[in-house]
Fold this sequence. Notes:
Helix content is about 35%, strand content about 25%. It is built from seven helices and nine strands.
Amino acid sequence: MMNFRDMNPDMNQTAETMRIQIAQLCKTFTLHLQGGLRLPILSNVDLSVSAKECVVIHAPSGAGKSTLLRCMYANYRATSGSIKVLHAGHWVDLVQASAQEIIAVRHQSLGFVTQFLRVIPRVHTLDLVAEPLMTRGMSAQDARLRAEAMLVRLRLPMRLWLLPPATFSGGEQQRVNIARSMICDYPILLLDEPTASLDESNRDTVLEMMNEARERGAALVGIFHDPAVRRAMATRVFELS
Ligand SMILES: Nc1ncnc2c1ncn2[C@@H]1O[C@H](COP(=O)(O)OP(=O)(O)O)[C@@H](O)[C@H]1O
Ligand SMILES: [Mg+2]
């Protein structure tokens, strides 16, 4: 019997539905404090992802899964190769893009759920979650209503909404992070262990949210430590060697 791993990854991909095209991607870290020691982490990675796919990156710890996602969000600049993402009907190569282009792509086309929340001092939870919508031009009132709905769905107690999340527990911060990163309907969503510190009910809610994103046509690329989550989410497994 054929499983997802054996399927030709290009089988369902057509030019119209393609969202990400990575070709010959290499990332080498140069450790300047170690006499310029070079650490080659990614070499010649090729990966294309279409709308309605959830590609799960699978590899042992330390193999470079998070590095790949960070390159795809242009947090790390790739050493060579290309990472093209579909943005406003055009392909933008994030390896060559200017800082301004990267910001525009992130606002409109590319979401990233990281494992940890980057807390902004003094900004309370509700505004932190609503901010990406306001950046896109939604009124503060409408954005806060949407933020409230996200926080209710992720079971974050109301007493926490007007506090900055700096002192929240790991799982509470993670849910604020998910609410903020998934509040916009990004056509491409990158997820690095989004369910790692969640209890079962919240994990199931996040699974539902990821599936809804996929069903409305988003392309998802995820790293999931939990084999059950991997099985539930993957439409394709990408083995990073
Ligand atoms: N900024 C960095 N500078 C130097 N080495 C790094 C950096 N980021 C990651 N690495 C190294 O790259 C390797 C892959 O890391 P990572 O992508 O986090 O692995 P994974 O997510 O698969 O567990 C590790 O050996 C890590 O130490
Ligand atoms: Mg990682």
